[in-house]
Amino acid sequence: MQYNLLFMDADVILKNGILRKSCVACCDNKIIAIAKNIPPLKKCKTVNLRGNYLAPGFIDLHIHGIHNFLIDNGPADLIKICRILPEYGVTGFVPGVCPRPKGEDASFVRKLSSVKSNGARIFGFHMEGPFLTLTGALPKEALGSADISRVKNLIKAAKPYKAIFSIAPDFEDILSLIPIMKQNNTPVFITHNKATVKQAIAAIEAGARHATHFYDVFPPPPETEPGVRPCGTVEAVLADPRVSVDFILDGEHVDPIAVKMAMACKGPDRVCLITDANVGAGLPPGRHKFLGGVDVIFSYEGGPARLAGETDRPGVLAGSGLTLDRALRNALKFLDIELYQAIRMISANPAKVLGIDDSYGEIKEGYAADFTVLNKNLTVLQTWVSGECIYKKGRN
Questions:
Q1: Exposure class string for 106-139: b at 16+ Cβ within 10 A, else e
Q2: What are 172-193's pLDDT values in tens digits?
Q3: In contact, 321 and 302? CB cutoff 8 Å
Q4: d(CA 251, CA 253)
Q5: Considering its fold, how many domains does the chain have in total?
Q6: Considering the entire predicted model, what is its pTM?
Q7: Whole-number Å distance between alpha carbons of 134 and 220
Q8: Is-contact 245 220, C-beta < 8 A?
Q9: Per-residue DSSP letter, 301
Q10: 282 falls within a domain
Q11: CATH classification at residue 143
Q12: DSSP string, 171-188
């Protein structure tokens, strides 16, 4: 057996447990062996992890910015974000794009899709709008109409990457768009809606099979009969085993008990953690420029972003200051789960949502050599993409 990269003395985090004091061998950017003992070869790069964790690289399904950079600022910021994310263990992500006027949106996405990452992999572009019924912190002019040509133009503009759309099940004529959005095994996300249970079920049947920043901007329908609990998108999503969910686990966006409820409904493979990080994430508390010159404020590190007081919606949630390594630590703090289960929520499970779980998201023979090295405090020490160390604590 030939290999050119060997990790030794690692606690290897697998999908269903941890293999203590073990080795992982890689060749041609792929994992080829996992065993207790693998002897080093003469021309092989050997990395002794001295008992630290070797985890699959983290995947963030929903992110808009980090540090002083925002994806909606354009390609230069996206390149910076690709380089910064490995500091937090991220080896792949889906950049989030806020809606622009028709025509401008495709032109902007086309510029983003020309970026060649030299850091974390780009796994597609997330179009958070314009097919929404509730805008949250997005610009109110973000709402559009059910325009098939607009969908097709955005899909074309995103190539060679996938265009992943977030939709509201109660958006007028959305059922005509979902079949186009889901082509080529592309997931369609549900979010920002006030749908009835019937509308939500129809969207799921049409092919929308993932709910992003679940519970947030998912208000229940109004009570129509005293004493009878109304059902809406939340209940439709929880009841359908085909639908996966993700959460912003910062302690404020969603109560941990609601996450536990989703885990009980969904099982171990269909719950993910995201950051929905905004510009300013990963930095000390402060004030940062968001879309259109609007400011967002972080009152503490890792907490939610909120629109500044001089806006027309002061205090409204506008993403988070989370990083995925912090979300991992929060999962262990809030959810009473094992480390390997929490790691799955930021690796194997998001890979499954994206339809890339045959190559990414696990430490498994034949999979990409994308790794995150963590110490016992779950601080990121190293991040590897395609068999190359792209982040090392203290070096970068």
A1: bebbeebbebebebbbbbbbbbbbbbbbebbbbe
A2: 999 999 999 999 999 999 999 9
A3: yes
A4: 6
A5: 2
A6: 0.96
A7: 13
A8: no
A9: T
A10: yes
A11: 3.20.20.140
A12: STTGGGTHHHHTGGG---
